[in-house]
Amino acid sequence: MLISKVSDQIKKSKYISRDLSWLRFNYRVLDQARDAGKSLFDRLKFLAITSSNLDEFFMIRVGSLYNYLDYGKERTDYSGLRELPFRKKLLDYAHRFVNDQYLTFNNELKPLFAKNGFDILKVNELTEIEQKKVDSYFKNTLYPLLTPMVFDNYHGFPLLMNQLLTFGVVTRVTDEGKPQDRVTFVQIPQNLARFYEINRKDKIIFVAIEEIVRWKIKKLFRNVEIVSVNLFRITRNGDFTLEESDDLEADFVQEIKAKLKTRKKGRVVRLEVERNPSQFMMKILKERWVIDNANVFTINSQLDLRGLWQIVNHRQFKDRGFRQPASVLPVSLPSDGVDMFEYLKEHDVLLHHPYNSMEPVVNLLERAAEDPSVLGIKQTIYRLADQSRVTAALLKAAENGKHVSVLFEVKARFDEERNIKEGERLEKAGCFVIYGISKYKTHTKMMMIIRKEGEKVTRYVHIGSGNYNEQTARLYSDVSLLTTNEIYAHDVSEFFNVITGHSRPNEYKYLITSPKGMRSHLIELIRHEARNAKKGLKSGIVIKINSLEDKEVIDELYKASRAGAPVKLIVRGICCLRPGREDLSENITVKSIVGEYLEHSRLYYFHNNGDPKVYSGSADMMVRSFDRRIEALFLITNAELKREAINILYYNLLDNQNSYSMREDGTYVRRRAGANEELVDIHKLFFNKAYATEELDLV
């Protein structure tokens, strides 16, 4: 009866739960792992991604829920459920997902290992010679790194690290004639490869290092009776939202450094454990971490599927997975040999990654670092590549005496330490570095190069939706603009003054920014389409984003739908809007695109009675984007570039190979091409530049 009541309450809500929507997104990623049309290595890749996604979900979203539960704060989910019933619903759904995840691994993927040239085996499945190799690896490498940590009346409970595989070894000793059990913890080293590799003639054998430790566990417990050996893994709360607004005058970098340490001892929100664990150990862990069976995930296979990356990236299989075509030149750039400083004086360039390389941006920055005419560089940085060419160019520019201002966002989740380290390197080189703005997260992506050209100073601007990261630019779909247009340059200059100082400009001509004004500006654009629809004028809204969660914007889209304006949404991940509900959202469709490239670009199209307004930039339609982040959307004014952006949206809507349609109840169904329908795969089509020159109508 209670389950039925909860389900009815969820169905009645005009909003979809953000967290349940996210879990449905991870199901779409899991669907890629189930796709028999992909190579085994690509399927394993997507399965590993679902595991990484779920780790972050528990650290951040479930962690956030526990902030409310543990601090006694009230919370009502978009579904209408309060904290405790929502916790049950969410964790029940997570259990279902994990079950499906491992059914995919065990039943669909493992049977394909041998015919693809490898296998994952236990030690007892190896030959005698192979076991000798494993024994040697244990003695020389693993054994010296293992540290048993006992918990008993004389030893406190050890600090167990977040997301490390751990053995809980229950031993029995006799004290004064009475047998007593105690538990000792052994954590698997995190700085070793997950699998020990053995080359056979016909295949590669992978042996998980935790299985090697299990095989030799008695070496750590000499002359002691071992009752049971239990492998488990914990996930701790990694959400800091309750603390981020404390003491705004404190040294913010030191504050972030301190918070990073709390990830190691945050409250446990998930316990993954292999089958049939010791009940003695489980009782201790549950009591210690204040968790119950809802937090416990029993795994019928290999714990932590992220380890599959070692197989996916193995040099012997590098040609067995997805092969990305070579990038093509942007439509608005005639050749890769042009002098960008000269070309951009007369032309704007729209870049569509990964179909267009990030090289024009990085090359421009590297040239600017060496060019004696360049006076200064200003840039925001959110996530960087390993061995970043962007950082190297900024260091070179500073060494060459140029003014370099960099805003490093140290709250970029899980990249905090790297950004602090890189920022400190730039500071030492003489750059002016700002480590974020403590009340807000700087998520906008922009760069400006100031160059003296005769008596004139030209500002070269780059602004977009993606990070200055050469690695992810090959995997993430993003849109960005290179320009010397004075209006963009003025707006971006003003915006840099806002985020590095205390300037408060009255308005921008081509930018919409947050936390001031973005929500209200977008709402006005939506209302304008609704008014046109009511007047009988042609209207329409097409929006491509990562996430849609803000209730105020959702309500305005509902109103536009009721007014008769067609609303087409392409939302990769979280979508809290219900499409197709009678008398609410009948004119709204929602689709999600999940495939080889991560759809990261944001594009906003408003028909405007035949004179479309098209924006791109860093912001999704989320509360955090509007209220707690520094974001920017830029208006695309050049007619050719606007047409290209419109065409990107057009083919996103047409895609029938990577797409899922959202139903009114919040579930998704795979979009399949009809019998007489042309196949449209945007992850292939956009490598053909012809798409950008067509005259297409979105509504």
Automatic annotation (TrEMBL):
Cofactor(s) essential for the protein: Mg(2+)
Every Polyphosphate kinase N-terminal domain range: 15-120
Binding sites annotated in the UniProt record for ATP: N53, Y476, R572, H600
Post-translational modification: An intermediate of this reaction is the autophosphorylated ppk in which a phosphate is covalently linked to a histidine residue through a N-P bond.
One GO-annotated biological process of the protein: polyphosphate biosynthetic process
CDD domains with a match to the protein in the record: PLDc_PaPPK1_C2_like (cd09168)
Signal sequence interval, chain numbering: none
GO CC terms in record: polyphosphate kinase complex
Residues annotated for Mg(2+) binding in this entry: R383, R413
Domain Polyphosphate kinase middle: 130-311
NCBIfam families: poly_P_kin, PRK05443.1-1, PRK05443.2-2
Stated name of the protein: Polyphosphate kinase
Originating species: Pontibacter mangrovi
Source organism phylogeny: Bacteria, Pseudomonadati, Bacteroidota, Cytophagia, Cytophagales
GN (gene name): ppk1
